[in-house]
């Protein structure tokens, strides 16, 4: 992985904080930081929950350089204690529900938006050098006014009213959190950089299955016989981690970065996995839909030096992990 090999070099023992450290993407960020000589403060909601945290303690260099802090995004003091003394922060934590939640305001919007503001206030208080906030393509692509056929770049924002009208609370939570984060940075002289990954897949470090991984697992298990042939934008979780470290370490990084590697339609995705693993129970009925044919570009991130791996490698490593973990039975 060229980007990961090039970053982190020459770093001393810099202290950084990763929020939601036990999650799918954050675990790979913690691993990459520990491999690159950082001292990491990881926030977790329940340090005694081994199912969510045990894997972190087993990471290389964790014994010496990883310290877990109990913190909830909505509890300012807990967040501030974890961030105190850090030079940098990777704010990854945010609710990513696998299905509809009964109370989106309390369960999604508040933790995403108020939680992000708590993190940023604590960063300002601790005089952190740079904060990298993980947003999402959910904050980009829900924009009915973007010209049809025009490649989506960092100038494209999801329309908040459209997200509300369509009751897409996840998209609304990420759009509000990211725009308020950039706004907070500008108003308070805090260096805030945001990253918007698309659908993240790849091998898991944690023992519980997160929402985006379950999408691929369900496809392999033929959980639904009928699927829509729509375009997916995919990025490997390890390439997301390297993107976060890249924008943290490159002094010239600024503003917003879309983080997308591959665009592939459901049909082609199934064909690609089938060629490697012919014997799974793939969906049999693929229906054509009126797809909006959106294309999202990561040119800005690539110009900064970001590299990503081929989709075949991501799929193979994911399936091998799922097999070994018994997730496909
Ligand atoms: N996966 C994707 O396809 C994708 C795509 C684009 C962007 N993203 C973004 O990437 C980030 C990580 O997502 P992921 O896929 O790694 O999801 P994940 O595995 O579900 O991780 C989410 C993390 O957020 C933490 N969290 C949620 N609410 C919290 C709260 N109130 N206080 C403290 N921590 C809280 C969770 O802690 P607990 O373990 O205690 O629940 C968990 O560690 C999120 O910001 C997400 O929006 C994900």
UniProtKB/TrEMBL annotation:
Keyword Hydrolase in record: no
Keyword Ribonucleoprotein: no
Single GO term (MF): oxidoreductase activity, acting on the CH-OH group of donors, NAD or NADP as acceptor
CDD domains for the chain: FR_SDR_e
Highest rank taxon of the organism: Eukaryota
Keywords for this protein: Oxidoreductase
Residue stretches spanning the membrane: none
Span of domain NAD-dependent epimerase/dehydratase: 16-254
InterPro entries: Epimerase_deHydtase, NAD(P)-bd_dom_sf, NAD(P)_dehydrat-like
Protein name: Cinnamoyl-CoA reductase 2-like
Species name: Ananas comosus (Pineapple)
Gene encoding the protein: LOC109724550
């Amino acid at each position: 992985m060229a980007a990961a090999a090039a970053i982190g070099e020459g770093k001393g023992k810099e202290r950084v904080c990763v929020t939601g450290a036990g999650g799918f993407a954050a675990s790979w960020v913690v691993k990459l930081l520990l491999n690159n000589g950082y001292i990491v403060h990881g926030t977790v909601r329940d340090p005694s929950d081994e199912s969510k945290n045990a894997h972190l303690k087993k990471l290389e260099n964790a014994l010496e350089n990883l310290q877990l802090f109990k913190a909830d995004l909505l509890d300012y003091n807990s967040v501030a204690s974890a961030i105190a003394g850090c030079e940098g922060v990777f704010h990854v934590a945010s609710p990513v529900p696998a299905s509809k939640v009964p109370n989106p305001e309390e369960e999604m919007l508040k933790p995403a938006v108020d939680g992000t503001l708590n993190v940023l206030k604590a960063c300002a208080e601790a005089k952190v050098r740079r904060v990298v906030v993980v947003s999402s393509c959910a904050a980009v692509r829900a924009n009915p006014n973007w010209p049809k056929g025009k490649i989506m770049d960092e100038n494209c924002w999801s329309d908040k009213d459209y997200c509300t009208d369509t009751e897409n609370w996840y998209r609304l939570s990420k759009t509000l959190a990211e725009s308020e984060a950039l706004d907070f940075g500008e108003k308070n002289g805090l260096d805030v950089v945001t990253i918007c990954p698309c659908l993240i897949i790849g091998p898991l470090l944690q023992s519980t299955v997160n929402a985006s991984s379950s999408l691929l697992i369900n496809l392999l298990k033929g959980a639904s016989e009928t699927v829509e042939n729509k375009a997916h934008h995919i990025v490997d979780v390890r390439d997301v981690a390297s993107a976060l470290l890249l924008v943290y370490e490159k002094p010239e990084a600024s503003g917003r970065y879309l983080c997308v590697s591959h665009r592939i339609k459901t049909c082609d995705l199934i064909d690609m996995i089938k060629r490697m693993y012919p014997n799974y129970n793939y969906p049999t009925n693929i229906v054509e839909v009126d797809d909006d044919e959106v294309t999202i570009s990561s040119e800005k991130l690539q110009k900064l030096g970001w590299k990503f791996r081929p989709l075949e490698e991501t799929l193979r490593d994911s399936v091998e992990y799922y097999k070994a973990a018994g997730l496909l039975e």
